[in-house]
Design goal:
The strands form six sheets. The chain has a three-stranded antiparallel β-sheet with strand order 3-4-5. Strands 1-2 form a two-stranded antiparallel sheet. Strands 6-7 form a two-stranded antiparallel sheet. The chain contains 17 helices and 13 strands. Helices cover 45% and strands 9% of the residues. It is globular and about 65 Å long. The protein starts with 7 loop residues before the first helix and ends in a 21-residue tail after the last helix. Among the domains are: 122 residues, no CATH class; 128 residues, no CATH class. Helix 2 packs parallel to helix 4 and helix 11 packs antiparallel against helix 12. The chain is mostly helical. It binds alpha-D-glucopyranose. Alpha-D-glucopyranose binds next to helix 2. Its EC number is 3.2.1.26. GO terms for molecular function: hydrolase activity. Keywords: Carbohydrate metabolism, Glycosidase, Hydrolase. It catalyses: Hydrolysis of terminal non-reducing beta-D-fructofuranoside residues in beta-D-fructofuranosides.
Length: 464
Amino acid sequence: MKRKEINPADAYALLENAIFCYQGEPAGTVAAHDPALDALNYDQCFIRDFISGALIFLIKGKTEIVKNFLIHTLALQKSEKRMDCFEPGAGLMPASYKVIYEDGKEELLGDFGNHAIGRVPPVDSGFWWLFLLRAYVKKTGDMAFAHQPEFQEGIKLILELCLRSRFEMFPTLLVPDGSFMIDRRMGVYGHPLEIQSLFYIGLRSARELLRSDNEDGSSYLQAINSRLGSLRYHIREYYWLDLKRLNEIHRFESEQFGENVANKFNIYPRSIPHWVTLWMPDRGGYLAGNLGPGRLDFRFFSLGNLLAVLGSLSSEEESQGIIQLIEERWSDLVGRMPIQIVFPAVENLEWEILTGSDPKNYPWSYHNGGSWPVLIWPLVAAFQKMGRPELGQKALDLAGDRLITDEWPEYYDGKNGRLIGKEARRYQTWTISGYLLGKMLQENPESLSLMSFDEDPEIQGCPV
Ligand code: GLC
């Protein structure tokens, strides 16, 4: 098939075409516009899907749609959520929303996971919302918008959900399976990296947005500061994997008791999978997918690692290491379409047990090792932040004309991403905006500040 040349103006026109209105004003973008497939819930605006499009609108100075989106989702945070016996907790932000018509009147209906396949709660939504509110304020300079009482209350409700006391000692956030971009069963329950990176970014955003001139605000700020420090320490110290660390784990003693032991989480050396000892490059490394008692998930999860770099959750050295690892393992991770959501895929009995034999998450497909073009924007942004823009260009060159020829699929399948996803929708909005945002960032690196956080020396880590 003859390849078509990509024209950013056409891509932007497609993004605009995905916009829907509420009360006559642009309010969000639908997840996909595939004329050939049943809409299912792809006619809704997902918070996580909207982020890349929203950043594009902000960069282009079209701030109204982002403002409306923030206002509507905030209002939905308090809406009636119950369905059947599934009742989301107060403060949860919806996964998605859409306009419905009741008695001839327009209304917004949020889905908090109580309608979703598998009834999965969107833990990431609140953090993405905080990230976007911060980007909006950075772009417009309108701090008074975030300082309005309803917004302050919304921020605090999200904080209530994640900072309140729990039956837990870890500083990371304990979440159920499928509560983020991977919204199906994939063995990602517990303390998955993607949520920890978003949690850190969400807390850092809230810290910039909360008013500190009252007692209530200051007590939240105190709680945020202390959690940021312990979370950062925990991730840098215990999630980091490289050849040196693998060697340490390989020689770990187990069943150690007490405060000052090396193997704090009782990880058994035999749990190191063979693939990782072969795959780990001599230079570079990455943050593990998950950590719990007796459990270290060695899989490489792209979004969690890229967001750790963007949020400065990983140290400068670790962030450099993550970029090096992507460069060293380019053919596995980027292959023919940037970038695989997770590496490697789980197969055979492991696939049966971890996914519950989910045919959509078959090895090297969809969430189980498929390639997602939406991840181009955090990839390009992380390369940019770590001073390696040429790698971002390489990724963009790979994707560009192929995406337009294939009509912007949701995801790709196969070990190196050469096949269009088996059940992928075409004209998937975040595929269009993920690529376009990457391209815009490459051309205007100053936009990086909307989505990136510098290392903050004021955050105090735990004592070593
Ligand atoms: C799928 C993806 C989810 C995305 C949604 C809409 O459910 O797993 O991450 O938000 O589609 O595109």
